[in-house]
Amino acid sequence: MLASLLCIAAGAIIVASHWSAIPDPVPVHWNGSMEADNWSDKSIGSVFFS
Predict the structure, then answer these.
(1) What is the pLDDT tens value at each position of the chain, 50 positions in all?
(2) Can you tell me the distance from the alpha carbon of 17 to that of 42, in angstroms, rounded to the nearest whole number?
(3) Which residues contact 50 (CB under 8 A, 6 or more apart)?
(4) Residues near 4 by Cβ (< 8 Å), separated by ≥ 6?
(5) Contacts of range 23-29, beta carbons closer than 8 Å, 24 or more positions apart
(6) At 48, phi and psi to the nearest 5?
(7) How far apart are CA 41 and CA 50, in angstroms?
(8) CB-based burial, 9-35: b 16+ in 10 Å, e otherwise
(9) Which pTM was predicted?
């Protein structure tokens, strides 16, 4: 369980350190051709939980 928590923490740190490079709006869904077809505002929830 500790390894899983460390991986989650590492991912959060990486995202936080690159926050300014994340586009606004954020693509949150892709179609079968791997093209973004749904977007959301850049927020903690849309980046981590979408």
Answers:
(1) 999 999 999 999 998 999 999 888 989 899 999 999 999 999 888 888 86
(2) 15
(3) 26, 28, 29, 40
(4) none
(5) 26/50
(6) -90, -30
(7) 11
(8) eeeeeeeeeeeeeeeeebeeeeeeeee
(9) 0.62
